[in-house]
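#lab-general

N.A. 3:47 PM
ok so I finally got the sequence cleaned up, no stray characters, all 200 residues accounted for. can someone with queue access submit it? mine expired

B.Y. 3:52 PM
send it over

N.A. 3:53 PM
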Amino acid sequence: MKNPSKSTSSPEELAARKAVRDEELRNRNEYLDIAERPIIVDLSRMGFNVNSVWDLKAKYANYDGAISILLKHIVLDYPDIIKEGIARALAVPAGKSQFGFLISLFESSKKSNQPQFREGLASAISELAGDEDIDQIIRLITDESHGEVRLYFVVPLMRSKLDKARVLVDHLSSDPTFAKEIKARRRRRKGWTGSEGTKH
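B.Y. 4:20 PM
back already:
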C-alpha cells in the first residue's frame, strides 16, 4: 500500500529538478574557479600548474617553492573551501616552519564563519605537530571553545611517545567528545598500550 503522505513526481518534474541542481552546481563551480584564479595564477608563475590548490599534493611530490605563495594567499579573502585547500596544502615538511603561524590562524579563526578553513588548519597542525609541539597541542585540545574540530588533535597525541601525551589520551578516552575517535584509532593500532612504554 502506498503511503498517501508521500507525493509522487512525474519524470518531467524529476528531470526539471535535476536540471536546476545541475545548473546550480555549474554556477558554483564557475564561481569558485573565478575566485581561486589569483592564487592559481601566482602558482603558475612559480612553475606549479594546477587547476585548483587542492591539486598540489596529488600532482607534485615536492612543492616547497609554492609555500611562500600559499602563505601569501591564506590570509586573503577566499571562499571557505579554497582556504581549506590552502591550509591543507601547507601540511608538508616545508610548512613546518610556519607551525606557530598556523596555530595563530586557527585560534583567530574561532569566531569566523569558515568552518572548512578551520578544519583545514586543524588538519595541517595535526600532520605537522611533533613531540616538540605537544604542549601547544595539549593547550588546543583541552580548550573546549574550539569545539569538535579538536578531534584532529587526537592524532598527534596518539603519535607521541611522551608520557604526558599518552596520559592525556587515556583521560580523554572517557570524554564523550573524544571517546569514539580514540577507541577507533586504538583498534586500528593494535598493541597501543596507553601510558606504558613512554618517555618524559
